[in-house]
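User: Okay, second chain of the day. Same drill as before: sequence in, structure tokens out.
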Amino acid sequence: MSRRRSFLARRRPFVIGAGAALAAGALAVPAVNAVPVPQTASTPSAERLHDDFNGDGFADLAIGAPGTTESGLKNAGAVSVLYGAAGGLSTARRQVLTWPGHGSGDTPEYGYGSGLRSADLDGDGYADLLSSVAVSMMDVGSGYAVVVNWGGPKGLSAAATSLAWSPGAEWQGQFAVGDVDGDKHPDLVTAGADQWLSEDPDAPVAEDGTVRHGPFTRGGGNAGKDHFTVDPGKYLFNPVMAAGDVTGDGVDDLVVSAGDTGARTTSLLVGGRDGFTGKGLLHDAQGRAVGGEDIVIGDLDKDGYGDIVVGRSAPGGAGDAGAATKGGGLSVVHGGPAGVSATRKPVWISQDTPGVPGTDEKGDGMGSGLSVGDTDGDGYLDVATGLPGEDLGTTVDAGGVLVLRGGASGLTGTGAKSFTQSTSGVPGTAEKLDRFGAETALVDGDGDKRDGLIVGDPAENAGTGAVWTFSARSGGITASGSVSFGGATLGLPGSAGFGQALGD
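Assistant: Same drill. Structure tokens below.
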């Protein structure tokens, strides 16, 4: 288990964990927004859980359905929260949230429940839930806001607070959360130059992103903000980002991947009290630039330095580390005291890597929906990745998930596990274009120090979406006793894209 587990990151950048699958009897649905009853974890952690919204010592899970119609507004979005307990995550302990500010005046908002992250922003001991929301404003144009529902003893607040706004659809609402200045308070890092409505919307933009320093107030205030540039002289396009401690100094660093498909590059920026220090582009063992569409950071070999895992879900282009693959894969760049390790070579893992189930085939999408956590309780972090384009026989894009094991030598194909809807014990039937595995999360919902697997499939059931839970045992993830459910089970009628985002 990483010593900085609470701020290990990904596109949805942090580590969460789940133990037991939902019990069959746990699928009874009480009233929407039922208040969870706090319980005490049998093995309380000495470190606060970044995803424990009600402070009972158990990790909770947020599930986004950003395409849901709410109050007549299409794609307004919703979030469902499952609360952990000694028996694991359960649909009977849940809360459904919607964004109450949508559609007001000339500022319609869409897609609440995208890009879910969690951290204790106000320092009250309860994790808070952040989401990006697409905003269309008459005088400014399109952009994205980051909003937060605040944690407390009864769960998350029904009302959300806006924390940040970035103009331009090209930023895609990307953000990360981590202590990037070393003051022990989580900070909010957003992609895109910072502009508020009170500022001149025509002002020239020179920065790639903004850091809002914690702690935050429940009115949306922060301890100050700074701007930063990832790669001077270059335009940051379609960024994804993650925050985590790569250098082992107790301060979170930032990894940003950007560019067009087939020509993406990934940069490392080391955090500190004086702001970010650029460490340049990441490269693979052959010296090619590493590019990808998803990122997680975790200390996979327990050497005290976070390792950077970049998921390349699309075929690479010239000069890209993904150039040799058809079906995607993972670039693993090891961390070190100066940023990138000076002694460990980067590793490339695909379905052609020994021990990894399946075959590297065009469009498999390996590298999608990354998550990191300890699935077998051995103290080493493992990595889950989706295979949403995996074909099962003649069933096109049925989808799948891989769980790769970490160890003293880092991430490996040895002992990897594969799950699809055709795996014995997994509910449902593999169908064309299901894209099972579009999202994953690793969550310890029962406090047993083993992270269970959560799989999101927003395309399931004609686009209404579904989520699967898998237990973790001493041997890792098992399909035995796995459970599937959709938004209707949680009292969310008319959900669309349920499972498109999973909190981390």
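The longest strand covers residues 109-119.

User: Thanks, on to the next one.
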